[in-house]
Design a protein that fits this description.
The complex is a heterodimer of chains A (541) and B (304). Chain A has 541 residues and is mainly alpha-helical. Chain A has three domains: 173 residues, no CATH class; 123 residues, no CATH class; 95 residues. Chain A is 65% helix and 5% strand. Chain A has a five-stranded mixed beta sheet. Chain A starts with a helix and ends in a 6-residue tail after the last strand. Chain B is α+β, with helices and mostly antiparallel strands. Chain B has five helices and 17 strands. In chain B, the strands form four sheets. In chain B, strands 6, 7, 8, 11, 14 and 17 form a six-stranded antiparallel beta sheet that branches. A five-stranded mixed beta sheet of chain B has the order 2-1-3-5-4. Chain B has a four-stranded antiparallel beta sheet with strand order 9-16-12-13, with no helix packed on it. Chain B is elongated. The chains are: A mainly alpha (541), B alpha+beta (304). The interface between A and B is large, with 55 and 46 residues.
């Protein structure tokens, strides 16, 4: 096995094992509760598809209408949860088995891509290996990205498919033989289709690939214009069509096909439903507590933000140098990476990213940023001090990654509550009124206290905690079986409040009904109370 | 002779010093020229600058993380604050948190002390004799709004530094002692609700579109004015639905205001000082012009 594959395999296995180990600790946010509820249903309905296609298709259409999104990601998580349960994993771990698998695959693909990308620069094998080792670290040491990778939501799977499709497309442009190019192009199309079938807004990979091809054509036309003597004979349409990359043509076919298969409700009447579905997927007209791009800048460790900026600047520089010196390979690769990285970030900046919590709207841009950052780290050492390139790159990597690792350790398991150092961590974010968590997941930290101190058969009012998450905690045995859910403040003996940035009226009504605003237990990060328990007299022992 | 010798000595010293300085200057110029000639090429220089920048940001981030952790209160500090408030706090005292997100305090403030929102300028603190300000002075981006406001209206009687927590006691010179609170007069309709971004105990009056809701209070003595705040809570409809709030004393309208959920918490004051002494019948009339407005949260005080 080559060193490249050894690194990828090592990273894949280590990441999947670490994700599975850590999967039991974080709480269930609103989005994950949706997937945990939808996944088993979607997987259950998809199973009889070969035997009773019409019936199963109709049931899936109903489910996808109810969900308002494609079901592939949810179904895969549902399937993995079933396998995890059969393998004897405990409650939350079994539900997140698919997420651990995706995290492992993402780490492996990222290591492979980093090795290839650094190797394409003409760097030594050691420098390429260093880039491959660093890339998964750069990605998964960011607390929020690591937190997201642990959750059973379609986003990390979408990011994996986005990255793999780009890799396939890049290979389809630079393969040594026509057969290999066709093979890679077909895979790129299939993977782009799967990405859109996991998260509808990832259909944007199609226009990104088209823009990449068009920019290439424009560049060629400009070069031909600069050298008028080299103008070739006029081409017919068939010849022009043959020039369209196979990856783009495959994506043109597979993206709509995969979306139709994963989103049966949309497939039943695409003319009338496509636009509303796309508008919903891009969050048109939905107010957000904080724009995803701002959130990314404020929530990521400062050193990783700086590294991403250096990585992007390096890619732009390589693109400019490539254009100047006519290095077609470099121009193709850098332009593709830049388009695929900046595209999602631009959508996030213009409010056209999906209305999801935390980093999820632009999560698929982060593996690419990690790739560019890792390459930049490896190259910086080689260029700044060629004689000691590995030592310098490693030392620099340690200095850049140490704050991220320390932040990850500090914030675990409430990783979605972590904020960057310039802001002052979670405390500084609270001062600015930024969302303290993604969707009620911090309540998980109160469950041990609840199990220990709640009076027998106490009625619990859950404020800011999604009902699906409560059901999952109960199923996982994290919530005492005798505790029942209260319908409203008046009926409650205990109130578990997970703070969000919105209205707190229900929490105050609960205080009023319980006759106290004194908390009996708190889950906090940086002294910011993310979740608290309030109890009626006698309901807390 | 001696003068002549001294002059020669000085002249020789000056010449020597001049030569030395000239030598240093020449050396520095040569060194600079050599460094410029052997300067790293642009790519290497850029890589060195970027590497140094990344290293500095990494080290700075680690230092910032440690500084933030060191600035925030520990479990021991909270226990000390709890002991202090339990020992020195008395019924009628209130606690204000600064910054407002320091809600871990809810687990440590004794049950007989009430945590109240930081008062805005001019906002009365009815029935409060002393305010304990529990603050984390080292918290990032902290403002001292509450401390400054309390310092304006009260005497800072005591400051206790408990690790990374600070507990300041403010003695209010003239505690506002209203004749009555509307919420206390109708406890069945009173509740804590979110008004002006904080929990307020208020009278919650449901709104029916088009119909007037009359809420009558027991006959009572009225002082100089009826004052407080009114907030239309968010309902199912648009936040701009107008709501009219009127105060009738002995069947005669004494004051009214129109407000909507979009306006937030509105202050009102109805003058009642010219009424004849004795008990009066007070009725609050609330009318919503359209559908979808939430209930009205009325914080009212009968001022002496």
């Amino acid at each position: 096995m080559t060193r490249r594959r050894r690194i990828a395999l090592g990273w894949g296995l280590a990441t999947a094992a670490a994700a599975l180990l850590a999967a039991g600790a974080p709480g269930v946010p609103r989005d994950e509760a949706e997937t945990m509820a939808l996944g088993p249903r979607a997987a259950g309905l998809a199973r009889p598809l070969p035997a009773h296609p019409a019936q199963a298709w109709s049931a899936l259409a109903d489910l996808s209408r109810e969900a308002g999104r494609p079901l592939l990601g949810d179904a895969l998580h549902g399937l993995a949860a079933e396998v995890g349960e059969r393998a004897g994993l405990d409650g939350l771990r079994s539900a997140r088995a698919g997420a651990a698998l995706v995290a492992g695959l993402l780490a492996a693909v990222l290591a492979l891509a980093a090795f290839d990308l650094a190797g394409a620069l003409g760097a030594t094998a050691a420098t390429a290996a260093l880039a491959a080792v660093l890339a998964p670290l750069v990605l998964f040491l960011a607390p929020r990205v690591a937190g997201q990778a642990l959750l059973a939501t379609p986003d990390a799977l979408g990011a994996l498919l986005w990255l793999a499709a780009l890799g396939g497309y890049a290979r389809s442009l630079a393969g040594p033989t026509r057969l290999r190019r066709t093979h890679a192009g077909l895979w790129a199309g299939v993977l782009a289709g799967l990405a859109a079938a996991v998260r509808l807004d990832l259909w944007t990979l199609l226009p990104i690939l088209a823009a990449h091809w068009l920019l290439g054509r424009l560049h060629l036309a400009w070069l031909a214009h600069q050298a008028p003597g080299t103008a070739g004979a006029a081409e017919d349409w068939a010849a022009r069509l043959r020039r369209v990359p196979i990856g783009l043509l495959a994506a043109l076919i597979f993206v709509p096909a995969a979306v139709a298969l994963a989103f049966p409700w949309l497939a039943l009447d695409p003319l009338h439903r496509a636009l509303p579905a796309l508008a919903a997927a891009h969050g048109a007209g939905v107010a957000r507590p904080v724009e995803p791009l701002w959130l990314a800048l404020l929530a990521m460790p400062a050193a990783l933000v700086a590294l991403a900026a250096v990585g992007l600047a390096h890619a732009v520089l390589r693109l400019a140098v490539g254009l100047r010196h006519g290095d077609g390979d470099a121009v193709r690769v850098e332009a593709l990476i830049l388009l695929a990285t900046l595209g999602p970030l631009a959508l996030a900046a213009t409010g056209l990213a999906p209305p999801l919590a935390g980093l999820r709207p632009a999560l698929h841009a982060f593996p690419l940023l990690a790739l560019l950052g890792a390459r930049a780290l490896a190259v910086l050492g080689a260029v700044a001090w060629p004689a000691r390139r590995l030592a310098l790159s490693t030392a620099l990597g340690l200095l850049v990654l140490a704050p991220a690792a320390s932040g990850l350790w500090h914030a675990f398991p409430t990783l979605a509550s972590a904020w960057g150092e310039p802001l002052g961590g979670a405390a500084g974010a609270a001062m600015l009124g930024l969302p303290p968590q993604d969707g009620g997941e911090a309540a998980r930290g109160l469950l041990p206290a609840l199990a220990l101190h709640a009076a027998p058969s106490a009625r619990v009012l859950w404020v800011g905690v999604p009902p699906g998450a409560v059901a999952r905690y109960r199923r996982a045995g994290l919530l005492r079986a005798d505790l029942v859910d209260a319908a409203g403040p008046a009926e409650a003996d205990l109130a578990v409040v997970a703070r969000a940035s919105g209205s707190r009226d229900l929490e105050y009504r609960a205080w009023s009904a319980l006759g106290t605003s004194r908390a009996v237990a708190t889950a906090a990060l940086d002294e910011v109370a993310l979740a608290q328990v309030f109890a009626r007299a006698g309901a807390w022992r | 002779m001696a003068v002549h010798l001294l002059a020669r000595l000085l002249s020789a010293t000056r010449a020597l010093l001049g030569e030395q300085v000239e030598g240093w200057y020449g050396q520095a110029r040569a060194g600079g020229r050599a460094a410029w000639v052997n300067r790293p090429r642009a790519a290497r220089a850029a890589a060195m600058i970027a590497a140094a920048g990344l290293a500095a940001i990494g080290a700075g981030s680690l230092a910032a993380q440690r500084a933030t952790e060191a600035a925030l209160p520990s479990a021991l500090d909270w226990r000390a604050a709890e002991a202090l408030l339990a020992r020195d706090g008395a019924a009628g005292d209130a606690v204000v948190l600064e910054p407002a997100w320091l809600e871990r305090a809810r687990q440590h403030v004794p049950a007989d002390l009430t945590i109240i929102p930081a008062p805005a300028a001019g906002e009365p603190l009815p029935g409060v004799r002393r305010v304990w300000l529990v603050s984390a002075p080292g918290a990032p981006r902290r403002h001292r709004t509450a401390e400054l406001e309390l310092s304006r209206r009260a005497v800072r009687a005591d400051v206790q530094r408990l690790g990374r927590l600070e507990v300041l006691r403010f003695d209010l010179p003239e505690p506002a002692a209203p004749l009555a609170e509307l919420a206390a007069l109708a406890p069945a309709s009173a509740s804590l609700r979110e008004a002006g971004g904080a929990a307020r105990r208020c009278l919650v009056l449901p709104l029916t579109p088009g119909a007037a809701l009359l809420h009558a209070f027991p006959r009572q003595r009225l002082g100089s004015a009826l004052a407080g705040y009114a907030t239309v809570l968010p309902g199912a409809g648009a936040p701009g639905v107008p709501v009219r709030l009127a105060f009738q004393v002995d069947g005669e309208e004494r004051g009214a205001l129109e407000l909507s959920a979009a306006e937030g918490r509105r202050r009102f004051e109805v003058e009642t000082g010219r009424l004849a002494p004795g008990l009066h019948e007070l009725v609050v009339v609330v009318t919503a012009s359209g559908a979808g407005a939430g209930p009205l949260c009325l914080e009212g005080l009968v001022l002496p």
